[in-house]
Amino acid sequence: MKKLASVFAGLLLCASTTVFAAGLSDKGVEHVNTALEHAHAAVVHGKAGHAPILVEHAKLALNHTLSASLVAKGVPKTHIDAAADSLQKSIDEGELGHAPAATKAAEAGVEHLNASKQ
User: Fold this and answer.
1) Which of 44, 72, 86, 102 would staple 93 via disulfide (CB 3.0–4.6 Å)?
2) Which runs of consecutive H residues, i.e. helices, occur in 48-73?
3) Sign of CA dihedral 97, 101, 107, 113
4) What is the Cα gyration radius of the chain?
5) How large is the angle between the packed helices 99-116 and 26-47, nearest 10 degrees?
6) What is the DSSP letter of 48?
7) What is the pTM of this model?
């Protein structure tokens, strides 16, 4: 009976470690870094009033953000998903020609992507 309890406790520990393990794989970090590069570029172009170019970079950032979300777990995934929402809003605003609002949304995306790496 003690052996069974020990085995069960070990399995429970393994399961909880898997469930609560948070972070990004190397591939996820690569996607986040690439997304950050494009999100920063979107912000720069947005501040210059170049909404169409902002949209191009925000779309590329969103693609990499979604790829990172597929391999992320825990708190980083929460920030990556929030970044994806912000980048989508940036794209939507940029397509309407609203560079200031699109820039603000892209900046929020950058903040969430940076937070996902901590």
Assistant:
1) 102
2) 51-71
3) negative
4) 19
5) 160
6) T
7) 0.81
Q: Render pLDDT for 76-98 as a digit per residue (tens, 0 to 9).
A: 999 999 999 999 999 999 999 99
Using an 8 Å Cβ cutoff, are 34 and 41 in contact? no
What are the angstrom distances between the C-alpha of 92 and each of 22, 24, 82? Answer: 31, 28, 15
Per the listing, tokens 């820039």 go with 103
φ, ψ (nearest 5 deg) of residue 15? -65, -45
Spatial distance between the Cα atoms of 68 and 117, rounded to a whole number of angstroms? 11
**Average confidence score pLDDT of the chain:** 88
Give CA–CA dist 40/21, Å, rounded.
29
